[in-house]
């Protein structure tokens, strides 16, 4: 399975794995699954660190380098096709990052791994829910 990690799933897997269900933890650990991460998740991490909502044990650049080395993550490209697909995504929370993640999953035919209830019920996207 090809899995696109929502930002919180990626961060929980590294900083708070107790928040992951057994099913999601197994999916992340399975060598049969491809794990994908959007650069927007990196941006969200930077914002969370800047606002003090996440405290890392070292500089964010070093932490990010280590985090990317822990698991083989493929970079989900932000393309014009993804941007166009965002106009077809209807989320009740209207969060632009969530919209881009759903559009990315649709365009690249990925299953979005999330605990976000706003995304879980979205039509037209494959979701593996952390609940």
Structure characteristics:
131 residues, alpha/beta, five-stranded parallel β-sheet, 7 helices, globular
Question: What is the fold's blueprint, element by element?
Answer:
Layout lengths: L1 E4 L1 H9 L6 H8 L4 E4 L1 H12 L9 H11 L2 E3 L4 H7 L9 H13 L2 E4 L2 H4 L6 E3 L2
Parallel strand pairs: 1-2, 1-4, 2-3, 4-5
Helix pairs in contact: 1-3, 5-6
Word description of this protein:
There is one protein chain. The chain is α/β, with parallel strands linked by helices and 131 residues long. The chain contains seven helices and five strands; from the N terminus they run βααβααβααβαβ. Strands 3-2-1-4-5 form a five-stranded parallel sheet. Strand 4, helix 7 (117-120) and strand 5 form a beta-alpha-beta unit. Helix 5 crosses helix 6. The protein starts with a strand and ends with a strand. The model has no long low-confidence stretch (mean pLDDT 95).
């Amino acid at each position: 399975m090809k899995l696109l990690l929502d930002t919180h799933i990626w961060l929980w897997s590294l900083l708070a794995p107790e928040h992951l269900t057994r099913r999601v933890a197994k999916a992340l650990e399975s060598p049969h699954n491809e794990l994908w991460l959007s650069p927007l998740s990196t941006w969200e991490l930077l914002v969370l660190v800047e606002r003090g909502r996440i405290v890392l044990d070292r500089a964010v650049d070093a932490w990010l380098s280590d985090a990317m080395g822990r698991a083989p993550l493929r970079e989900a490209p932000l393309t014009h096709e993804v941007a166009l697909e965002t106009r077809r995504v209807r989320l009740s929370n209207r969060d632009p990052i969530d919209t881009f993640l759903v559009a990315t999953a649709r365009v690249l035919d990925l299953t979005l791994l999330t605990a976000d209830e706003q995304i879980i019920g979205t039509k037209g996207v494959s979701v593996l829910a952390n609940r």
